[in-house]
Amino acid sequence: MICLEEDKKEYLFMTEHEHIRLPEGSIEKTTTTLNLGPTHPATHGVFQNILELDGERIVSAEQTIGYIHRAFEKIAERRPLYQITPLTDRLNYCSSPINNMGWHLTCEKLLGIQTPKRVDYLRIIIMELARISDHLICNSIVGVDTGAYTGFLYVMQYRELIYEIYEEICGSRLTTNIGRIGGFERNFNDIAFQKLEKFLKEYPKVLKEFINLFERNRIFIDRTQNTGAISADRALNFGFTGPNLRAAGVDYDVRVHTPYSSYQDFQFNIPTGTSGDNYDRWLVRNEEMWESLSIIEQAYRKVQEFKGKGAEVFHADAPEYYLPEKEDVYTKMEALIYHFKIIMGETKIPVGEVYSCVEGANGELGFYLISDGGRTPYRLHFRRPCFIYYQAYEELTKGSMMSDAIVTLSSLNLIAGEMDA
Amino acid sequence: MLTNEIVKQKLIAKFGVQVTDFHEPYEMLTFEAPKEMNLKVLNFLYDDDELKFRFLTDLQAVHYPNQQGRELVVVYHLHNLADNIRIRFKVFTDIKTPDIYTATGLFSAANWMERETYDFFGVNFVGHPNLKRILNVDEMDYFPMRKEFPLEDQTRIDKDDDMFGRG
User: How far is CA B93 from the centre of its chain?
Assistant: First the structure.
């Protein structure tokens, strides 16, 4: 009792220079709970991590996701196929064109449309550009989170070049809604190709310099090596795909395993890491950018080989499914009829179920589409790579330092839009 | 080289008449098993030295309100990465007791996929370590991807839109 009285007195007369005396028992709890997110600048997206910390070490992590869930799968059940493309834009919005193409390819598989080679090559150019822009963001953000802002600002203007190419082709930049079932909405114009040439000429130098900034940087290596590591076995069990799986040493790539859009015509390597840590993930993404550049160059050469009439092909010959050009709709009877039929949902869609996947920037982006022959899908499910591998986050960060967990978060390349659908 | 036919024969040899409805839509082997058998089948596919379906690509459900006693179906997409072959495995359940054994013991990846399936379809994964909603709010008292929940009718007129400048 007396003791308490004294404590009280001391508290009352305590000046700010004295140490604060905590009530007895209050320091028994040895861990601290910390809410990382939902809106924390270091999470680069809207998701929350409830971390249990012992000092700076992470004891456990619980993820809350779903802050930007927009019920795409439900909405898709009321939309005709061509109206679902804009929904896919908003999955991984750092590389929308890959999602768009993935969706077109799924529909084409269901409808049995064969696309001409030129369309395939043009698509590959767009998809690889998207992969570069996605990896560019991810890798430069890893730089930002380790305290190096320069790289991020430097490469950003080259992402701009990519966006300008999109703009030339489809008119928009971020949520592209690029292409249609069967091909593209219009042929690539000369400016698009000029911009592509400019990019191919200028970008390698920039990427080289970007890599030089980090690759042998002592601080960067210390921050990223041996943090957030995962073994190949665990990564497979957790359903990892894409660069994160390859960093762990498994050379699984959808582009090679189940080639789509004529990827079999191209020569490229699949870079793999060994330890699956943050540094390896970063290296794998960089190497993939080099490979993507080489694929784009090959594809561009192949596209240039088409001359005369062949160079005007930009969509499959499938009038009942390919939404015709507006100009044709206004001037040609047949195009008008098909346009009307497609818009009003009078086209025949086969009954069936199809799973089709593409190598998204984060991994295997799958579309599971069930059609009952109606105007809209009966059920559509997106296999979102981010959603699946984010559950390994606790295992990746347990026992590590809080600041390493931040780097792990960005090096996994978590895109809230893709995770939450 | 593993083919759909070999997978099919091995499954029939092991489970007999319990694995049914083999077909190959768009070249992917699809089959069905009773819901009590799902773990046995998954385990067999995982452990067998030849089959080695050790990668869970995807797991989700579909709702067929008109199929009496078989309203919900959980669909597993499995992948054998060594031989690069994919299969689709379906387990039907009635909607009154949608209990299905969890695959989390076999695949860590199944954890969130099953939570998502529970969240949207109300499939109860028996033995799941943390079966709660994942994308929707915890307070939600229905399963929104079931067919009886239609999207909002865009022509409805009973809504007060004054605050949105559409009134």
Answer: 10
Read off the pLDDT of residues A73-86 as tens digits, 9 standing for 90 and up. Answer: 999 998 889 999 99
Answer whether A353 sits within 8 Å of B26, measured CB to CB.
yes
Q: How far apart are CA A247 and CA A128, in angstroms?
A: 19
CATH code for position A209: 1.10.645.10
CA nearest to A352 within chain B: B25
Instruction: Please give the pLDDT value at position B14.
Output: 92
Q: Do B55 and A236 touch (CB under 8 A)?
A: yes
Asked if residue A99 is part of any domain, the answer here is: yes
pLDDT tens for residues A217-257? 999 999 999 999 999 999 999 999 999 999 999 999 999 99
Identify the CA nearest to A107 among candidates A83, A123, A71, A78. A83
Q: How confident is the model at residue A354 (pLDDT cuts 50, 70, 90)?
A: very high
Write down the residue that tokens 């390349």 correspond to: A413
Instruction: Identify all chain B residues contacting A77, using CB atoms and an 8 Å cutoff.
Output: 151
Residue A50 located in a structural domain = no
- Percentage of the residues of chain A whose pLDDT score is greater than 70: 93
pLDDT value at residue A358: 94
Residue from B108, B131, B155 whose CB has the most chain A CBs within 10 Å, to mutate: B108
What pLDDT score does B157 carry? 72
> Is the CB of residue A366 less than 8 Å away from at least one CB of chain B?
yes
Q: Which of residues 93-112 of B touch A (CB under 8 A)?
A: 107-109, 111-112
Give the distance from residue A354's alpha carbon to the nearest chain B alpha carbon, in angstroms.
6
Say if A34 is an interface residue toward chain B (CB within 8 Å). Answer: no
The answer to the question of residue A270 being in a domain is: yes
For residue A94, tell me if it sits in a domain: yes
Residue A107, SS3 per DSSP: helix
Q: Hey, what are B56's tokens?
A: 């869970």
Decide if A364 contacts B57 (C-beta within 8 A): yes
What is the rounded distance in angstroms from the CA atom of residue A137 to the CA atom of residue A44?
11
* Dist CA A225 CA A279 (whole Å): 5
Map out the domains of chain B with their CATH numbers: 4-148 (3.30.460.80)
What is the chain A residue with the closest CA to B73?
Answer: A379
Of B57, B137, B151, the CB nearest to A74: B151
Express each pLDDT in A197-223 by its tens digit: 999 999 999 999 999 999 999 999 999
- Tell whether B22 lies on the interface with A, counting CB pairs under 8 A: no
Range of the domain at A402: 79-420
Q: Select from A162, A364, A378, A175 the least CA-distant residue to A260.
A: A364
ipTM: 0.91
Q: How many independent structural domains does chain A possess? A: 1
pLDDT band at A12 (very low <50, low <70, confident <90, very high): low
Question: Is residue A171 left, alpha or beta, with left meaning phi > 0 and alpha meaning psi from -120 to 50?
Answer: left
